[in-house]
């Protein structure tokens, strides 16, 4: 079962290269470790020269010793050279700064102060904003390239839901208290669940006004049918497409109005689907509504039998 423990098979052992003649010698003149040319090398790299013949340079950390310029030492030597160049540039800058201060003391004209070329550049607010801008552009372009959509096929959330508002949820009983009978209270109306403050027009929606019957209740059906005496209900069953468009038109009117404002929603109890539709105030339209109601009942019964 050795193949389970070692599925790749036995790896060939590294051997000391036969062409490497200059073996290191111990005090007795013998090579350390195994003396055979095909034995495992003492170096961790096969074929690595055991005799370092690279040029030597002064050790940046200890001037009294020399170090090899072999590959392993080159990053350290390069960094030491970089630090030396930075220190030299800083000293030259200090010298120019001192000369400038002496000229200023003598009253001579000098140019603008030179910044330290070796100073670490700090990322300020503008740098952070630029980074955010570039990162955003990169993500947008990457989304367009990979998915064909700048937003990676994600829907933009409605940010208005995170903005605190003074809107509230009304019950039908609570909404009825704002019908204008109390002059100290505002006047609210509702259309298809949306509640609007119409207190700025008390002459129309207050007691004695032409639309006072709408105050304190959700009379959405009346906005579609025009039956302002009998359709003061939120029940929209059986409305025609044109009547539904009328309801949506008035909702948009109050929503976009600069005179009125939305203050919340009203919660209605569920409507019994078996209850009859509200009768239309126009006899002809009432007859057509009955026919639509019967057709809807027959369609519902047929669907129930299929299930």
Written description of the protein model:
It holds the Pfam family Cyt-b5. Residues 1-73, 99-118, 264-307 are annotated as: Disordered. The chain is of the alpha+beta class and 307 residues long. Among the domains are: 129-158, no CATH class; 164-271 and 278-294, Flavocytochrome B2, Chain A, domain 1 (Roll). The protein contains 8 helices and 6 strands. It has helices spanning 2-5, 74-105, 125-147, 172-176, 202-205, 220-225, 241-256, 283-306; strands at 56-59, 62-68, 168-171, 188-191, 194-197, 261-267. The relative contact order is 0.06.
The appropriate CATH architecture of one domain is Roll
Percentage of residues in DSSP E strands: 5-15%
Q: How is the main sheet built?
A: 4 strands, mixed
Large-scale geometry:
elongated
Could you tell me the radius of gyration in angstroms? 45 Å
CATH superfamily of one domain: Cytochrome b5-like heme/steroid binding domain
CATH topology of one domain: Flavocytochrome B2, Chain A, domain 1
What's the level 1 CATH class of one domain? Answer: Alpha Beta
Which residues form runs of ≥5 with pLDDT under 50?
34-48
Strand order of the main beta sheet, please? 3-6-5-4
The helix/strand class is alpha+beta
Number of H- or I-type helical stretches: 8
How many β-strand stretches? 6
Q: Indicate the mean pLDDT.
A: 82
Proportion in helices: 25-40%
Describe how the helices and strands are arranged:
Elements (H helix, E strand, L loop, with lengths): L1 H4 L50 E4 L2 E7 L5 H32 L19 H23 L20 E4 H5 L11 E4 L2 E4 L4 H4 L14 H6 L15 H16 L4 E7 L15 H24 L1
Parallel strand pairs: 3-6
Antiparallel strand pairs: 1-2, 4-5, 5-6
């Amino acid at each position: 079962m050795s193949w389970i423990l070692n599925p790749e098979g036995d790896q060939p052992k590294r051997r000391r290269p036969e062409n490497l003649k200059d073996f290191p010698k111990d005090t007795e003149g013998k090579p350390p470790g195994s003396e055979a040319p095909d034995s495992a090398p003492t170096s961790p790299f096969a074929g690595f020269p055991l005799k370092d013949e690279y040029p030597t340079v002064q050790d940046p950390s200890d001037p009294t010793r020399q170090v090899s310029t072999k590959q392993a030492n080159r990053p350290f030597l390069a960094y030491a050279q970089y630090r030396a160049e930075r220190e030299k540039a800083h000293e030259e800058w200090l010298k120019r700064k001192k000369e400038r201060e002496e000229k200023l003391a003598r009253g001579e004209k000098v140019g603008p102060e030179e910044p330290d070329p070796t100073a670490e550049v700090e990322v300020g607010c503008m740098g952070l904003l630029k980074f955010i801008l570039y990162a955003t552009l990169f993500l947008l372009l990457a989304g367009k390239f990979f998915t064909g959509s700048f937003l990676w096929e994600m829907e933009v959330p409605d940010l208005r839901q995170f903005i605190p508002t003074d809107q509230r949820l009304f019950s039908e009983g609570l909404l009825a208290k704002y019908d204008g009978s109390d002059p100290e209270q505002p006047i609210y109306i509702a259309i298809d669940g949306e509640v609007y403050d119409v207190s700025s027009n008390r002459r129309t929606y207050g007691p004695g006004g032409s639309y006072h019957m709408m105050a304190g209740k959700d009379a959405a059906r009346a906005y579609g049918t025009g039956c302002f005496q009998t359709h003061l209900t939120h029940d929209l069953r059986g409305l025609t497409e044109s009547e539904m468009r009328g309801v949506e038109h008035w909702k948009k009117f109050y929503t976009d109005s600069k005179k009125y404002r939305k203050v919340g929603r009203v919660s209605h109890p569920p409507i019994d689907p078996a209850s009859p539709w509200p009768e239309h105030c126009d006899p002809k339209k009432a007859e057509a509504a009955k026919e639509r109601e019967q057709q809807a009942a027959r369609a519902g019964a047929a669907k129930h039998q299929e299930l």
